[in-house]
Each structure stands twice: as structure tokens, then as C-alpha cells.
Target: DUF397 domain-containing protein
Amino acid sequence: MDNWRKSSYSGPDDGNECVEISNTATHVSIRDSKTPTSPTLTISTTIFTPFIEALKTTTPSP
Model:
């Protein structure tokens, strides 16, 4: 995927807590903008929105 773009929720200041996404008609890929050559998470477009909604409602473990 070549069309990587930063999330609009990049964090304060210079956006150093940012993820980038790239999508096709069938998949969305997510990567850490600080390490773009690291592995990516790729999921189907049909589960992308439920995935994001689940992240918003999940409380991180201590």
C-alpha cells in the first residue's frame, strides 16, 4: 500500500503519538508512524469500524 496518511488524532504538539492508515476497497492497514518499516495490522474494511468502536470503549489494562 502506498497511500499512507496520518490519523487526524495525532496527539499533542508534533503528533508524535500517531498512527498512519492506508486503505484499498477491501482492506485497511494501520502502522506506527514512528517506525514505518515495522509490521502493519491489516483488517478487512467490513470490520474496521467495529474494531475502532471496540478500541474506544475498551479500558486498557494497568
Summary: Residues 5-57 form one domain. The chain is about 20% helix and 25% strand. Helices lie at 45-57.
